[in-house]
Amino acid sequence: MEQGRVEKAHHIVVLADQGQGHINPMLQFSKRLASKGIKITVATTLSNAKSMKTTLSYSMITFESIYDDCSQGGVVGPGGFKGFLDRFQASGSTNLTRFILDHEHPVKCLVYDANIPWASKITTQLGIAGAAFFTQSCATAATYYPMYCEVYEKTPLSMPSFPVITGLPKLRFPNLPSLGCSTGRYPPIIIHILGQFDNFGKADWVLFNSFDKLEEEVVEWMKKVWNVVTIGPTLPSFYLDKRVENDNEYGFNIHKPNSSNCMEWLDSKKTGSVVYVSFGSAANLCAEQITELADALRQSNIMFLWVVKPDEQSKLPIDFSKETSGKGLVVTWCSQLEVLAHHAIGCFISHCGWNSTLEAISFGVPIVAMPQILDQIINAHFLEKVWSVGLIAKANEDEKGVTASEEIYRCIREVLEGERGREIRKNITSLKELAKEAIDTSGSSDKHIDEFISQLDPAYL
Ligand code: UDX
Fold first, then answer.
1. Is 450 one of the catalytic residues?
2. Is the entire prediction scored with pTM above 0.90?
3. Nearest-CA residue for atom 28 of ligand 1
4. Rounded distance between C-alpha atoms, residue 406 and residue 423, angstroms
5. Of the residues 355, 357, 365, 383, which should be mutated to test ligand 1's pocket, given the most ligand atoms within 8 Å of the CB?
6. Is 192 an annotated catalytic residue?
7. Within 13 A of 281's CA, how many CA atoms are on the CB side?
8. Which one of 102, 260, 286, 413 has the minimum C-beta count within 10 Å?
C-alpha cells in the first residue's frame, strides 16, 4: 500500500479480545476493511499483538498493545480469569483512551469485541462511533438474551418472545448444561459472556460474523431491536474459489502449525476420502473422549487428519500414531483453512465453534458435530436440524457426556457413504454458494460493510 493512501485513509481502531475464536474473525474483518482503503489499528493484549505482528504484513494494519499480559500474567495470572479481566480493563481502558486521544490520525470509530464490557464507555466518553462485534451466531445472541435479562435483572426489550421465532431451536437451560444455569449458579465466565448485551444497547452498530441467508429469520427478528449488521463470513471470497496455499499471512495461530507435512499427506489422498478432526482452541477434551475418538478412527478404514493440541497429546492411547501410521496423521495444530479447502477432506468432526462452523460451510465440508460447551450446542443444532448439513454424534446422557466410539463411527459412515450423507453434501454445497455470494462484491455482507463505512464517511460510496 502506498504511503499516500494510508495518510488519507479513515482510521478505525479494532479492539480484539483474547482467544483464537475471537481474534480470527476480528483480524479477518480488519483485513476486509483495510482492503477497502481504511487504516486499521488492532488494539489488543501484548501477547496477541506480538504474534500478529509476526504473521501479518499489511501496511494498512498496525498493532497496538494496550495491556501487558506477558509480564502481568494473562488468564493464568493472579485471580485467574476474573483477575485477568480486571487487569485488562484497568490498563486497557486507560491505554486505549490515551492512544485514541493522542493519535495523529483521528479515529472515526472503535470496533470492539462485544465481549469487552468497558469498550462502549470509551466511545461514549470520547464521542466517537462504536460498533460491537459479536463473534458468534445471531441465533446464539438470541438464545443468550433471555438469560441476560434474568441474570442482570433487566426487563426484556419489547420484541416477539424467543420461542415463536421459527427456525430457532428451543434451547433452554437444560440444553445448555455447561452454563451451569440449571442449578442457579452462574460462573464468572457466563456473567461475562452475558454482559455483552450491555454493549449491544450502547453500540451504533452490532456487527455479526454471519450472513443474511444463513440466519434470515433470526436476523430479521434482531433487527427490530438492535442495529444488526451481518458482515460474514469474514473469510475473503477469493479463498472460496481456489485452493488455499502457503498462507502464512492470513490467520493468527495460538500454536505453531505443523501442517506443511499434512498438506503433502493430503495431496496423496483421494477426493473426499479423509476425515478432518479438530475441536478448536478452547475445548480441552478429557482422556475418555480422546480414547473414544481414537477407537472410532482406529477401528474404521477411514483416513483421518486429527488435531490433538499440545496439552491433549498425553491423553492419546500409547502407540496410537505408530499403529495408525499410513491411514492417519496426528498434528498439534494446522492451518485449518488450507485443510478445509483441500479436495481430500470429505467430512469434519468438529466441536462446532462458530468459526469452524462458518469455515466448514464456506468450504462445503459436511460436519459430524460433537459440541462441547456454550454456543457450540446451538451451532450443532442448526447444522443438523435447520440447515441439514451435518449430523450430531450424540453424547452419553451421564455427567461426563462423552460420545462413544460406535456413535462417532456411525455418523462418519452415514455422512461419507449413507443416503443422508448425499443429501447433506447437496445441502452444504448450496449453503457454500450462498456464503460466497454474500461476501462477493455487492453481495449482502459486502454491501453492509460498504454501508457501514459510508455512514462514517458519506463520501465513501
Ligand atoms: C470458541 C467458541 O467455541 C466459538 O464459537 C466462539 O465464538 C469463540 O470461542 P474456538 O474453540 O477457538 O472458539 O473455536 P472456533 O470458533 O471454531 O475457532 C477456532 C479457530 O481456530 C478457527 O478459525 C480455525 O480455523 C482455527 N484453527 C483451529 C486453526 O487454524 N488450526 C487448528 O488446528 C484448529
1. no
2. yes
3. 280
4. 22
5. 355
6. no
7. 18
8. 102
Ligand 1 atom 4: residue of nearest CA: 353
Which of 17, 69, 113, 375 does the annotation list as catalytic? 113
What SS3 class is residue 241? helix
Give me the half-sphere count of Cα atoms (radius 13 Å) on the Cβ side of residue 213.
15
Q: What does each of the 461 residues of the chain score in pLDDT, given as a tens digit?
A: 445 555 566 899 999 998 888 988 998 899 889 888 899 999 998 888 877 765 565 678 888 999 988 887 777 788 887 888 899 999 999 999 999 999 999 999 999 999 998 999 999 999 999 999 999 999 888 888 877 888 888 877 665 554 444 555 555 544 454 554 444 556 667 778 888 888 888 899 999 999 999 999 889 888 888 899 999 999 865 555 544 444 444 455 556 666 568 889 999 999 999 999 999 998 889 999 999 999 999 988 899 999 999 999 999 999 998 889 889 999 999 989 889 999 999 999 999 999 999 999 999 999 999 998 888 988 999 999 999 999 999 998 877 789 999 999 999 999 999 999 999 999 999 999 999 999 998 999 999 999 999 999 877 76
Pocket of ligand 1 (CB under 6 A): 19-22, 24, 135-136, 251, 253, 278, 280-283, 307, 333-337, 353-356, 359, 375-376
| Exposure string over 316-349, b if 16+ CB within 10 A, otherwise e | beeebeeebeeebbbbbbbbbbbbbbbebbbbbb
Q: Ligand 1: distance of its center to the CA of 289 in Å?
A: 19
Q: How far is the CA of 281 from the centre of ligand 1 (A)?
A: 5
Whole-number Å distance between alpha carbons of 209 and 192: 20
Catalytic residue of the set 22, 351, 381, 448: 22
Sign for the CA dihedral angle at 457, 129, 145, 45 comes to positive
Q: How many CB atoms lie within 10 A of CB 273?
A: 16
- ipTM comes to 0.98
Q: What angle do CA 398, 413, 298 make, to 5 degrees?
A: 75
User: For residue 336, how far is its CA from the centre of ligand 1 (angstroms)?
Assistant: 9
